[in-house]
Amino acid sequence: MVSAGSDAGPVTDQLITGVNSVKAGVETVNEAGGINGRQIKLIESPDNANPTKAVSGLRAQLAKEKPDAYIVTAGTQVSSAVAPILNQNKILFMNSANLDETADPKQHPLAFNLAASPRVVVEDYLPVFEAEGYKKIGILHGNSPYAKTFGELAETVFKENGYEVVGNVEYDSAALDMTAQISALRDAAPDVVVFNAYGAPTGYVLKGMTKLGWDVPMLGETSVASTPLVTQEPPDGLLGLPEVKNLKIEVNAATVYDPAAEATNKAVEKMKALGGIKGAMVNVLGYDGVLLIAAGAKSAGSTDAAAIAKALEDPKVNGNAGTAVYGSYPYSADSHEPKLPRGTHTFVPPAPIVNGQMGASK
């Protein structure tokens, strides 16, 4: 079962792409013989990433037939809402968000986070700081739960590694103008601005920088890279305009086209046939979730949720599933958050992203 829909406000593109990624994963597994000889049947919950509707849809499905697994591809609030129900009903849960509770097998033994942890995202800034000689860091972030975590963790990690955080400013993600917050950060005179934003706030931040005439390097984290605004040309985007001339965005390796990356390219072709990929490859973690389930079931020789979960804690299983976004998902008996190594992400100038990738042909 997958949380789905086609009208989820600012995360509509992410949700549609995420659902297509799950469909592509199902096709890939079914074409290879299914899960232990059985074809996967996908049930869509048309909840539009609304947590209340997602809970209602899940309960309605439970009243008819319990699903073997559940995938959330967009919306941290949906993940938080359905996690307790899935846990109570012993349903395998692949979570494209990154929640502390679904990373803890003591609380949710059948849940697995697919997204990189905030610490991995933050630590991958450090090589850039060192290479560019940045010493004084400014942090700008939104007020969502993830954005707050990012801001707090970034300050901690940067200070632990000897960098001076001269400002850590929070903005209201619902605001239409960020110039006051940007001005406050400018007064602190950082060498570089690290910022978090998704969707419309990305544009307000970048336009605010231009409005104030502040010429400073900017490093946008993975949520910025997932915003089509920075990888599309006008009139839909800002690519080529002054707003992005100082910007580099954080992406995973799968976002940069590599003709030798067979698993990634196979997934991209599948998703192109299903309507394409809007945004970067970080939005297609659902594909990997399906392949991980199949790999766990094959290793366990069973579709029992507990048996699959146990199998996925084995590096031989989570590292050889044929996944597309990350080559492996290093889970363990102590943590169901993928312990991805430092260097998983890199920073690149904004460029056109076609079907999730930079540098690929249309």
UniProtKB/TrEMBL annotation:
The Leucine-binding protein domain, residue ranges: 7-323
SUPFAM superfamilies given in the database record: Periplasmic binding protein-like I
InterPro entries according to UniProt: BCAA_transport, Leu-bd, Peripla_BP_I
Organism: Nonomuraea corallina
Keyword Signal among record annotations: yes
Keyword Phosphoprotein applies: no
Keyword annotations from UniProtKB, A to Z: Signal
Domain of life: Bacteria
Family as reported in the entry's similarity comment: Belongs to the leucine-binding protein family.
Protein name: ABC transporter substrate-binding protein
Pfam families for the chain: Peripla_BP_6 (PF13458)
